[in-house]
Amino acid sequence: MDNWTYYVAALIAIIVAVFIIKKVASCLIRAIVLIVLLALLALGYYYLHGGVTP
Prior knowledge:
Elements: H1 2-48
């Protein structure tokens, strides 16, 4: 019976780890998208105000 509880606990730990990794990856992807959008907005502002001709 001890092996049974060990395997159940290991399975629960794996499931929890997968959910945590999904949440962290989702947050990282959102942060990267936000940084790219801010860079594009800054580039557009720079071009529109005569900083550089495209």
